[in-house]
What we know:
235 residues, alpha/beta, two-stranded antiparallel ribbon
Amino acid sequence: MKYRRILLKLSGEALMGDSPYGINGERLKEYAQDLRAVAETGVEMAIVIGGGNIFRGLKGASEGMDRTQADHMGMLATVINGLALQSALEEEGLKTRLQSAIEMDKVAEPFIRRKAPRHLEKGRVVIFGGGTGNPYFTTDTAATLRAIEIDADVILKGTRVDGIYTADPEKDQTATKYKTLSFQEVYEKGLNVMDMTAFTLSKENQLPILVFDMNKPGNLLKVVKGEAVGTLVEN
């Protein structure tokens, strides 16, 4: 395997599948099966998932809600998604732990930096919920922060497109895909990979980011094997 320990970042919208809102059971099961295939190889796996399928803090703030309050609601949405993913993974026979940046000991462990790597070493999939625990930070930033804290080899950003393109491939049919990029090239070309705080944090800590299509079954396994899938951004 190319990677020993990975941090997978999924958007909350990814869990909607074909549904207009919430969590699609079929999509959840597909993801759980892909994650099980990777776990069976011995690769240590942590996951950060967004909450946009339930509530997005920025949207709430744009509609007049207090930004801090709205962001806390978004963080709670990520815990709901984390619980759903945890359940789906355990249905597939995996051992899991859900850790939350916001303490809620009835449903999740608190995030403890020294404890998370021990879970990974024991073969458990660790799901990080609650974002960073602070308003004004996205789950992209939470993913980067957690990846650095657990000493992950790479951030795998699962999206619905198969990499980074010169333009939005869903809007521009002439857009071409990059196989590799440096962090500096992403800055210079103005490409949208992650929010700027998360992206800069990755660059400063020399943490590669690989963007790939999570909705194609088997892609995640190909990525961890080092096959040419998606777009890799590194220093």
